[in-house]
Input
Amino acid sequence: MKHLKAYEDMNTGEPEIGDYVIINTERYLKQPLSDFINNNIGKIRWKEGGSIDVKYFNIPKEIKRYFNDNPVVDYIRKFPVSRVTHWSKNKEELEEILTAKKYNL
Output
């Protein structure tokens, strides 16, 4: 059984371009987009001022229209930095957080 560990490089300082992030969209976006973003990891592609552009992967067809769907720039959504709940250079650390959330651990 895996155990959650305290990670020293997670959530230290500010999230930067290239970091993986978990975004909280509670009372910010409508379903099913909110469910997808709350339960998936994105990657910061651009950061300017108080906002970030986050790229998502494996987006279901029914919500692709909510993203910038130009194949040249990928599937990106803009968020305020204040919506970032967790960030890390290591995606696996965030996957463990989502797994714990899924099973209420």
User: Anything to note?
Assistant: The beta strands are 20-23, 42-48, 51-55, 76-80, 84-88. Residues 32 and 62 are 9 Å apart (CA to CA). Residues 20-102 form one domain.
